[in-house]
Amino acid sequence: SFTMGRHNTSYEFAGNLDEISFWNTALTEAELLDLYNSGVPTDLADESGLIHWFRMGDPNGTASYPKILDAKGSITMTMSNMASSNITTNVPS
Q1: Residue 92: cis peptide before it, omega within 30 degrees of 0
Q2: Residues with Cβ < 8 Å from 57, sequence gap 6 or more?
Q3: I need a surface site. Which of 2, 6, 24, 75 has the fewest CB within 10 A?
Q4: Count of C-beta atoms within a 10 Å radius of residue 76
Q5: CA dist., res. 89 & res. 93, Å (int)
Q6: What are the start-end ranges of the E strands in the chain?
Q7: What's the CA gap between 6 and 51, in Å, rounded?
Q8: What is the tens place of the pLDDT at every residue in 27-81?
Q9: At 54, is the secondary structure helix, strand, or coil?
């Protein structure tokens, strides 16, 4: 079981999660800065070492609710304690 945006047994996270990625290698500070380009993430699909990439509603928007689709790997997560109206579909540019 894996939970994002939760602290211990309560749901106290008051923010947004977007473009969550998991890698099979540690990224350097320079690699992170390059990927997120001052707050605007690039397309990670072809990045070496990337094993999972959760776009968190982008580009499928509310149509993906309640699923969180993995754009790179084969894991599909399920949202809980959320409504489809919690999904924002503005892709950073």
Answers
A1: no
A2: 64, 65, 68, 87, 88, 89
A3: 2
A4: 11
A5: 12
A6: 20-23, 50-54, 67-68, 77-78
A7: 23
A8: 999 988 888 776 666 788 888 999 998 887 776 666 778 888 888 989 888 888 7
A9: strand
Within the chain, where are the H helices? Answer: 29-36
The amino acid that residue 85 corresponds to is S
CB 55 within 8 A of CB 67: no
Percent helix, strand, coil in the chain, to 5, is 20, 15, 65
**3 state DSSP class of 20:** strand
Q: Report the distance separating Cα 80 and Cα 35, nearest Å.
A: 29
Which of the residue ranges 18-22, 53-57, 87-91 would you say has the lowest mean pLDDT? 87-91
